[in-house]
Amino acid sequence: MRLSSALLAIPLLSAVNALHFYFESNEKRCFMEELPSDTIVEGHYKAFIWDEPANLWKMDPEIGIHVAVEELSSGHVVVNTRGPPEGRFTFTSHEPGDHNICLHSNITGGWLTNQHIKLYLDINVGSARPDSQADNTHVTTLSSKIRELNTKVADIQREQRYMREVEATFRDASESTNSRAVWWSLLQIAVLIGAAIWQMRYLKVYFEDKKLR
């Protein structure tokens, strides 16, 4: 049977892989995908059948697509389902290594009744399954960092309050010093004025006595 064995391994290197291929209704197409453990894989397929009288590809709701995924290292079948001509499948790899992804149609018949099928396939290799323990550790680490930041903020606020108190004390001392300097200047001016008045009166009396003599 043509292409009855697995197709040459096609490594799906990018995160999202899109391809289309042709096969007969009695054939099976398989793809090899190397995956790490606990990795989510999503696939989307769309099948068209060749309509000879209309000379075009069309989607026939009677077509069913069978999808099977097997872990080659353990022989465990993680997906074994049949869906409509357009559908999705999802699985999570349990063991690291090669995974065999096979697709074929539900149309059967003899050599003369084979149908030509075109199938579009998108495979999205997602990230590893979330690790709850790692997430909890991450949350705990974030909580500790937040507590440290709160402590630092509180220290900064205390330091700012202390600086405001120091500034208030310095301002009060400066105002007090300026006030004393002003009063001292006024006192000096008053003394000078008093001394000048006393000297003027003394000189006036001195000259008047001198005239009388």
From TrEMBL:
Pfam families: EMP24_GP25L. Residues 28-125 form the GOLD domain. InterPro entries: Emp24-like, GOLD_dom. Keywords: Membrane, Signal, Transmembrane, Transmembrane helix. It is a single-pass type I membrane protein. It comes from the Eukaryota. The keyword Repressor does not apply. The chain crosses the membrane at residues 181-203. Residues 1-18 form the signal peptide. It is found in: Membrane. The keyword Membrane applies. PROSITE patterns: GOLD (PS50866). PANTHER family: TRANSMEMBRANE EMP24 DOMAIN-CONTAINING PROTEIN. Belongs to the EMP24/GP25L family. This is GOLD domain-containing protein. It comes from Kwoniella shivajii.
